[in-house]
Amino acid sequence: MNRRRFVTGLGAVLAAPLGAEAQQAAPDASRRGRLPRVGYLGSGHPSDRTSPRFSYLFDSFASGLRELGYVDGQTAIIEWKFAEQRYERLPELASELVRLGVDAIFATADQTAAAAKQATKTIPIVFSAAADPVASGFAASRSHPGGNMTGLAQPGPQVTGKRLSFLKEAVPKLTRVAVLLNPRGTSHVQHLPAAQKSAVLLGLRVHGFEAPGPNEFPHVFVAIAKERAQAVLLLPDSTFYIGRTQLARLALRHQLAMIGTFAEYARDGALMSYGGNLSAEWRRAGMLVGKILNGIKPRDIPIEESSNLELVINLKTAKALGLTIPPSLLFRAEQVIE
Fold first, then answer.
1. Which residues make Cβ contacts (< 8 Å) with residue 226, sequence separation at least 6?
2. What domains, with CATH codes, occur in the chain?
């Protein structure tokens, strides 16, 4: 079977296969006397729910809930809270969900999960794309979370080294790599040392650059260019995901090869991406919320990690950067965007 899929434009999002729990019957909301409430806590904007760049994630989350019998406005009510990239608002938004008496909270990433954790020790919380849920204090262990939080974790720091190796293959004369991190997040605690260790083995020099928000992105890329970096490694962070188009344009403007953590980075202009399928993760998060609403405790639900990692390469960006991607690297790609 040929593993490669050649796509043009945004491409299609593939739904994950249905799990056994999808066969459960729809819940009888009347038994509880009211519709169960799900709190959504995100760092993006309300318009994301209808934007082509993000709406498919919300559709995936809704699909996961629906598999367990929960449909917004029919058998459940979703309370939507968006920080609009003002992370200082997250604690108050999380507290609002607690005051509303939600039965579970879906927190989309590390910053939102941390705010939800601070707001409640009893309401179940499901997170997605957590960089390191144990180091962040979300769970005692991945196999036995032990508290009121569970969800999905990104691949461990070892994947950061793999991303560096892909950059080195794509840019033959690569010697300097800028590592972009968000000081407000937690992923750099584990992933930056991993990048530094891998760089030594690959004969590369890496230098970390802090970028807490989109307003700082242009200034950071000017600093990266002054350091004569040839490529950018993005550490896992929801701020970078939301601002991925801006980051891709800045990288191209400064002639920098950039690799991100999800396929959307490459689809929106980065040279490459390597990581899990975020749409599938949001669908799975919806199913985990549904399981919790059906009575399963989060402490008894092991934290899941992306196992099907995808390498995506954007040949249009490669051409703009004057790069010829080696056939050996193209062969390993799940998607090649032309």
1. none
2. 5-20+35-154+278-305 (3.40.50.2300), 158-275+310-337 (3.40.50.2300)
